[in-house]
Write a structure and sequence with these properties.
There is one protein chain. With 223 residues, the chain is an alpha/beta fold. Helix 7 links the parallel strand 7 and strand 8. The longest helix is centred in the last third of the chain and has 17 residues. The model has no long low-confidence stretch (mean pLDDT 93).
């Protein structure tokens, strides 16, 4: 089945709703300029609530970082017992590898050729486990590190997937368009943030999260 990650979760309520909806992964954003950023204390409350929730499936936890020092990332990963650290800035392959298999690079290529180049550089240093993506492909927008609401071009995503089969697709996905994106690209996983939010930026809408998961699972059922 296509792995589903709901990113930018900021409250315990939204985290529990994401788990109930069927999210396989939940992303916690530690990039302070983001409207979806959480503090360590907020993240601690969210992770504890998920671990303590009875009769709920327990999603994997991913921390999102942008140009943060390796030591700072490792400290948060260890303290909160995160499964992966997503690096969404200008990090190098060495930065990803320094996290000992827990580092996961998000790339924003502008062309299929650049997608091949970046996938060649970063795919090999991503997580080695079959339960984790090798690489995330997001839409490019100058001076912004994701969260733009724009979709990655299918040709660009397919070019990266050829080198990184466990590719997670991000960028502009919604309950309304994710089925078409999965049909066109056949990613290993999909990653959504703003596409399942309500009127308040950074707060998830439980109904839209369920609709997103249902749309993906509907495609999985006919593949």
């Amino acid at each position: 089945m296509t792995v589903i990650k709901i990113c930018g979760v900021t409250t315990v309520e939204d985290a529990l709703a994401a788990a109930r909806a069927g999210a396989d992964m939940i992303g916690l954003n530690f990039y302070e300029p983001s409207p979806r950023a959480v503090s360590r204390e907020q993240a601690r409350r969210i992770t504890q609530a998920l671990r303590n929730a009875a009769r709920l499936p327990y999603p994997l936890l991913v921390g999102l970082f942008v140009n943060a020092a390796t030591g700072a990332i490792q400290s948060i990963v260890d303290e909160l017992r995160l499964d992966l650290a997503q690096l969404s800035g200008d990090e190098s392959p060495e930065d990803v590898a320094a996290l000992g298999g827990r580092g996961l690079k998000s790339i924003r290529p502008q062309s299929p050729e650049e997608a091949v180049q970046l996938a060649s550089r970063f795919g090999a240093c991503g997580p080695p486990w079959t339960w984790a993506p090798e690489l995330i492909v997001d839409a490019y927008q100058a001076r912004l590190y994701g969260g733009t609401g724009r979709q990655a071009h299918p040709e660009i995503a397919r070019a990266a997937r050829a080198l990184a089969p466990r590719l997670m697709l991000a960028g502009g996905l919604t309950p309304e368009n994710v089925a078409a994106a999965v049909r066109a690209i056949r990613p290993w996983g999909v990653d959504v943030a703003s596409g399942v939010e309500g009127a308040v930026q950074g707060r998830k809408d439980a109904g839209r999260m369920r609709a997103f998961v249902d749309a993906v699972r509907g495609i999985d059922a006919v593949v």
